[in-house]
Design brief:
4 helices; Aminopeptidase; alpha+beta; seven-stranded mixed beta sheet; GNAT_dom; acyltransferase activity, transferring groups other than amino-acyl groups; Acyl_CoA_acyltransferase; Bact_Acetyltransf; acyltransferase
């Protein structure tokens, strides 16, 4: 009988070539642009969600000061709790490092991500009007419209504070 347990593990250097290919497939290139910064997710710290031997999700992040910033979060199989498990693992990682907060950025069109993060104790922090339009100068592959045919223009930052055991 197959082991259907979801395992979360840190990204290892051996994982990086395959992650580079996966990022191109998921994000239209090896880079993502968030708040005007170009990131190479396959080179970042992160966690993988694995079921049996199959990769089913991943999160990449960067840290600065007291903050862990989620750069990418992808559940390759939706509706199975993979994204939730990855966020819970990121919260644990940030706490182990003694960090005070976790941030994530999405777009005005990504209503599913806005719902997802808010249901996991993230609060809206900042709206950067025109940030996606500016990011398109650095990464022209960013589409003009997002989910639900909503024009992509703005970035929305979300934050989860970690200084309380209840958060």
């Amino acid at each position: 009988m197959a082991d259907d347990t979801l395992r979360i593990k840190h990204i290892a250097n051996a994982d990086r070539p395959a992650l580079g290919r996966l990022m191109t497939e998921l994000w239209g290139g090896a880079t993502v642009v968030v708040h005007g910064t170009v990131f190479r997710p396959a080179a970042l710290q992160g966690l993988l969600a694995v079921r049996e031997t199959r990769l089913v999700g991943l999160v990449t992040f960067d840290t600065a000061g007291d903050t862990l910033e989620i750069v990418t979060l992808d559940a390759l199989v939706r509706g199975m709790g993979i994204g939730s498990e990855l966020v819970a693992a990121v919260v644990g990682e940030a706490r182990r490092r003694g960090l005070a907060r976790i941030t994530a950025t999405t777009t005005n069109a990504n209503l599913d991500a806005l719902r997802f993060y808010q249901r996991r104790q993230f609060r809206l922090l900042t709206v950067r009007q025109g940030a996606v339009d500016e990011a398109r100068r650095l990464k022209p592959q960013i589409p003009a419209t997002g989910p639900y045919d909503i024009p992509l223009h703005d970035e929305i930052d979300l934050e989860r504070l970690l200084f309380s055991p209840n958060t």
